[in-house]
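Before the break, one more example. Copy the sequence into your notebook; we will annotate it together after we see the structure.
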Amino acid sequence: MQRNVSVILRSNTNHERGCAVVLGVPRGGTSVVSGICHIIGFQMGLDIDPSNMECSEVIRMNKEENFQVKFSGYIKKCERNNLQFGFKDPTAIDWLGQVVDLIPNPIFIYVSRDIVASAERERLAGSEIQRTLHMTALRTKQIVSFLLNQSNPTILISYERLLLDPVRGFSEIAEFLIGDQLVETAQHASQFVKTSADMPSQINFLDLAISLRRTNQQLSTLRQ
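Here is what the structure looks like once it is written out:
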């Protein structure tokens, strides 16, 4: 029996515009899901670091004074550039409550990964295991509590199941966000989602998105 990669907590009925907010914990799979959102057509930042699919401007401003004012200005710039945009920060739950009301049409995407696996990846990157386990468990609890108190569209993604069935995972995310499973794009993109890869360090999702759009345009032209 095929198992879904995702669970929809609250349906998304607006497939024309929205801000995809990717939530999770450090080393928890948020980079890959943010990359998938970008391929689907959501501009996941104005200054994206391809090594982790984070917008440098968002990461920087949440540590500065007048964060809410700066964030509001940033969101307005994103919306002018693209009606479908988003951002990802694996520590976003630490500050999201301050600015969630400033986000137009938020769409929440929670990426869940085994806590031990996330903590082990952090340990390999040089973090202390006891503190990492504590922070991972704490943030997971905070994210769940936050989402249960929201009313906006929300999808829950199992990172482990996404790696086992990336085509299905990609299509489920695409259908939730834009109402189209993008089956061909999912099949092409899934070739780069591998359990052995240190994603996204070994995959440039920005280049991949451009390449897949070019391929789709060529296929569309041939079919005319």
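The first strand starts at residue 6 and ends at 10. Residues 90 and 127 are 15 Å apart (CA to CA). Try to locate both features in your own notes.
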